[in-house]
Amino acid sequence: MAEVRLQQISKSYGNNQVLQGIDLHVRNGEFMVFVGPSGCGKSTLLRMIAGLEDISAGELHIDNQLANDIPPAKRGLAMVFQSYALYPHMTVYENMAFSLSLTSMNKAEIDTAVQHAASILQMTHLLQRKPRDLSGGQRQRVAIGRAIVRKPGLFLFDEPLSNLDASLRVQMRIELSKLHRELAATMIYVTHDQVEAMTLGQRIAVFNGGKIEQIGAPLELYDKPVNLFVAGFLGSPKMNIVKARVLRNFGNVVELQLAAGTHINVQLDASNLQTGEEVSLGIRAEHILLASQTTEHSNQLEVCISFVEHLGDAAIVYATLAGEENLFAIKLPADTSDLYAGADLCIQLPGHRCHVFDNKGIAVGL
Ligand SMILES: Nc1ncnc2c1ncn2[C@@H]1O[C@H](COP(=O)(O)OP(=O)(O)OP(=O)(O)O)[C@@H](O)[C@H]1O
Ligand SMILES: [Mg+2]
């Protein structure tokens, strides 16, 4: 196991600053996920931890040792990339044994390490095959096996599953979680797939434009996003966001007015909001109720169905809301009747499920 501390880490290529002031503590044995849109600097940061990129400013500590200038091979870590980069002329066994053969380990020790990794990854029967005779998932497992044999305290993964088809990705996700438990190693995993982040990470760091927006457990980020970016990035469909104005502020309840005039009461600590202030109101699709399902008469509004996605276990309704450009997504039980384009729907936004963001996009009342 290993512990990683980043203090005010920055990275520039020439005049182009791609990471700014990154502070992060990855705990011993933790599964930490870096997630964020393309180009936000996830791979660059991972490569800096690996020692494949110089650190422009700040300090990297691995196990309480300043590691900025420690060469990659001496950092006690192993990295797995999206492209498996296996040696095509070598068997699976040879691919896994290769890096060990460069050390002082003898043949018997290498064999024990390879056999152990193969059994963890359930590929003992594949050891004599060449990479070309393997499926994509099997090749990726060899790449992970090559990392395991070195018994690193820290694994770095850069989008290792993105070349695999959807069902294999789900299977490999489960295997990676199992592997993390079995090896009791620290893992840092980069992805731009928010589902992968939510399902794999014990904690997630959400990146945007070279900065970390929020760090926390998956459900903490989902339930309490600190700003509009995190709110919109995690969750599918995206959190609905509409413009609103503060009408009245009762301290622990705030009354908002939407563009079409509807009033919505939200329960939160609103002590920092001013009457008249422009804000954004957010609510997730699964938290919206049909007015017919509730006895509560406040917070109701009329929408018009634009189209419906039937997912089998649920239906996602996309509807227009007077005064709003963006469609509103509403997740309803699959057997909800009368869902068709053009139909009017009366919905209710439960006040304790609403999020409010101030005019800078910062969450109110957290
Ligand atoms: N060697 C380089 N020289 C100059 N700019 C670079 C270099 N490597 C990366 N960049 C820039 O740094 C930024 C961050 O790149 P990075 O590869 O870390 O993004 P990422 O978050 O991993 O994105 P993706 O999800 O697409 O893999 C990008 O704007 C990229 O163009
Ligand atoms: Mg990348």
TrEMBL record:
Residue ranges constituting the ABC transporter domain according to the UniProt record: 4-234
UniProt keyword list: ATP-binding, Cell inner membrane, Cell membrane, Membrane, Nucleotide-binding, Sugar transport, Transport
Taxonomic lineage from the root: Bacteria, Pseudomonadati, Pseudomonadota, Betaproteobacteria, Burkholderiales
Keyword Membrane set for record: yes
GO molecular function: ABC-type maltose transporter activity; ATP binding; ATP hydrolysis activity
Record flagged with keyword Cell inner membrane: yes
Descriptive protein name: Multiple sugar transport system ATP-binding protein
PANTHER family listed in its UniProt record: MALTODEXTRIN IMPORT ATP-BINDING PROTEIN MSMX (PTHR43875), MALTOSE_MALTODEXTRIN IMPORT ATP-BINDING PROTEIN MALK (PTHR43875:SF3)
Matches recorded under InterPro entries: AAA+_ATPase, ABC_transporter-like_ATP-bd, ABC_transporter-like_CS, ABC_transpr_MalK-like, ABC_transpr_MalK/UgpC-like, Mo/tungstate-bd_C_term_dom, NA-bd_OB-fold, OB_MalK-like
PROSITE patterns listed in its UniProt record: ABC_TRANSPORTER_1, ABC_TRANSPORTER_2
